[in-house]
Amino acid sequence: GEGVGEETSLSGYFTVENSVGGMRVLCRDLFGIEMREERDIPSAERWDLDDDEVGPTSSTSDDSASGGGLRKFTFRHVDEGPLGTMYLDLHPRPGKFGHAAHFTIRCGRTRPDGAAAGGRAGGDDDDDGQLPIVALVCNLSPPTPGLGETVLSHSEVETLFHEFGHGLHSMLSRTAFQHLSGTRAAMDFVETPSHLIEAFARDPTFLSSTLARHHATGEPMSSRAARHLSLSHADFRGVEVQSQIVHSKFDQALFGEDPCSPSLGGPTSADTWVRMHRESGVPIAAGTHWHTRFGHLVTYGAGYYGYLFAQTWASDVWRSNLAPLLASSAGGEGPDGGGGRGGAARLREEGTKVWKGMLVHGGARDPKDMIRDVLGREPGVDAFFAEMS
Q: What does pTM read for this prediction?
């Protein structure tokens, strides 16, 4: 496809601070939520410091500009009051969990009368409800000494926004039972919010207006470069989807009726892995055993297909409800002739629909009913396939 021509390396446009700023803008524009950083974190809340570094409080002010250290954010809505707390633990260190994930430290739960803890008057938990506490734990590129910024690749930004989607799901969920809160939902739905929020990291309007600014000059990414970066997501997308299908079928074979065990009369897992690649036309390197390090086979247990299935729902909501409004909310002319402030109001309306129609319910409602309420119709797969072209 057409390249970006004279543009400089796009990786220089993505930093931790730009990404956190993009999260704040997303929360504000989509939900009317303020995401505010708390500079002083009590030592009892920190897990990133050695014993000799711990004091009564540990300030993040020295770390935040370069993106290092644990960071704490509180979320608040003008009408609904405090919503919860999110920690960002973004960079590697010795002995740390080595991947990227969202962890629910404490679930959100409503009071028996259906109201959330905190409420309009402010405050924190009361005796009959609780606000959520979540953590995003990643291993992004470490801060660059002397640079003053932590420069990220675009794929790292996508990862961060994906996990932020999980975090928002837990943050904005309010259910009567905490075991149905947030991401404690059906396996073939739970990735829908994360894929939906990840899409912001690829949207050309959001990139050029908010997310992508060069770390050295502060200049925003050009609209042309942002458009080409967005289009590049479709490169080899068909191969990626076909590989995901193989992984999903293999997952179901391992947990299916016919065991992958010679001692039980079945084939080995390696033989099954090779056979499914050949049947699907996906190349595989002979003599390798990649599936032995595929941790999702344990955590999903015949549900890995949900990762791909949820993308169809996320694509439908993104292309139907949110993407058409981003350009108009930024001041462009929408398809109905209403840009600028009118577009921003409609984006907030659709964002609130995602919050109140889907995120707030966690796993307490049938996923298809939630998607149907957000879309205003039956969900389909056309948007998913459109994104592959």
A: 0.89
